[in-house]
Amino acid sequence: MSNANETTSEAQPSAANEATGRGKLIVFGEHAVVYGHRAVACSLPRGATAVVTPSSQPRRSVTHVDGSLEIDERAERALAAIFDTFELSPRHHSVDVELSIPVGCGLGSSAAMAVAVARSAARLTDLDEDDARGRIDEAVAASESVFHGKSSGIDHAAALGTGFFAFSNTHGWPEITSLDVPEHRWIVARVAPPAPTSQMVASVATLRQRHPQQVDPIFERFDALASAGAQALEAGRWSDVGALMDLNQGLLSAIGVSTPDLESACYAAREAGALGAKLTGAGGGGCIIALANDDSADDVMTALQELGQVYSYTLPPSNP
Ligand code: MEV
Q1: CB 100 within 8 A of CB 50
Q2: Which of 14-23, 34-43, 65-74, 295-304 has the lowest mean pLDDT?
Q3: Catalytic entry in 96, 137, 155, 223
Q4: Ligand 1 contacts CB of residue 49 (under 6 A)
Q5: What does the pLDDT average to over 296-310?
Q6: Of the listed ranges 13-17, 68-72, 137-141, the one predicted with least confidence
């Protein structure tokens, strides 16, 4: 229990120090993007809000849409990696995070959280804007490698981004091209318990190691779908976007990251009139995304509500 003196000596979370990071939807190309191929994603309008506060009694609080998150040893290591980058001590800082997206189901919650915490930590230093930006990138990469092991950096890019973008990391650094996509409603359904991204990435690595001649051409197809998908998105050719999403889902199934729950949800969305549906993120559980026309969107949402929690986002976000 704290006494009155300790309580008054604690700095309170300050709104001036509040920072945000966004969640993401991967529309095309997850997994192949880890091997340098092209993918397409969009930042969500929201994700995580964090406040880092100097404190002699450091507190960790992470709340999300379904309750609060326990800070386990791995999450503490990820936080330590962020603090290290800014030469701050985790033992002398409280961290309060509020997540407004579901956690651990393909929507980029760990990167959103890392960006929000790193941006807030940067404000406690006297780094200039350029240096702070570089350190934020370093801190987020370090935190993501604690959570996910080998990662492409696409979640990181989305957490810092504002809209649709094409992404590749072929030469060891990210190449990001903004896409000018007309506004549309995107439906997200969380239909299965999440699977760790690191495990799903490792299972694809094992498959590729065993069958490189079969898996590498599939990765090439992901890349071609992402290029065609980027063009269809920019032109607002929604029925083509939907057809390409369905093809992408077939490839994700081929590399073993889909599940019966995810497949059933994709079929249910299509039967209710969706133009296309696919899992999003690492798979093995988590969320699907569905694209529908205005006249079928409500039916698709109703069909998916039978299978899990449904969210709808207008993308690109209107809060750049
Ligand atoms: C995870 O959101 C996306 C994956 O492609 C992993 C990565 O790109 O780092 C599965």
Answers
A1: no
A2: 65-74
A3: 155
A4: no
A5: 97
A6: 13-17
User: Using CA atoms, how far apart are residues 258 and 280, in angstroms rounded to an integer?
Assistant: 10
Answer yes or no: is the C-beta of 158 below 6 A from any ligand 1 atom: no
The confidence score (pLDDT) of residue 14 equals 64
Residue nearest to atom 8 of ligand 1 (CA): 152
Calculated CA dihedral for residues 208, 287, 251, 142, nearest 10 degrees? -40
Mark whether 155 is an active-site residue.
Answer: yes
Q: Is the CB of 144 under 6 A from ligand 1?
A: no
255 close to 218: Cβ distance less than 8 angstroms:
yes
Model confidence band, residue 12 (pLDDT cutoffs 50, 70, 90):
low
CA of 96 to the centre of ligand 1 (A): 26
Contact 86, 139 (CB under 8 A): yes
Q: What is the pLDDT of residues 77-130, one digit of tens each?
A: 999 999 999 999 999 999 999 999 988 889 999 999 999 999 999 999 999 999
**How many whole angstroms separate alpha carbon 150 and alpha carbon 138?**
15
Which H helix or E strand runs over 287?
Answer: strand 286-291
Element (DSSP H or E) covering residue 48: strand 39-54
Radius of gyration of the CA atoms of the chain, in A: 20
Token pair for residue 298?
A: 């409500």
Pairwise CA distance, residues 304 & 320, whole Å = 29
Which strand (E) or helix (H) includes residue 293? none
CA distance 282 to 119: 26
What is the structure's pLDDT at 7?
Answer: 32
What domains are defined for the chain? 15-177 (3.30.230.10), 181-315 (3.30.70.890)
Ligand 1 binding pocket mutation candidate from 155, 208, 255 (most atoms within 8 A of CB):
155
Distance 66 CA to ligand 1 centre (A): 24
Q: Is any atom of ligand 1 closer than 6 Å to the C-beta of 197?
A: yes
Query: Does the global pTM surpass 0.90?
Result: yes
Give the Cβ contact number of residue 122 at 10 Å.
Answer: 23
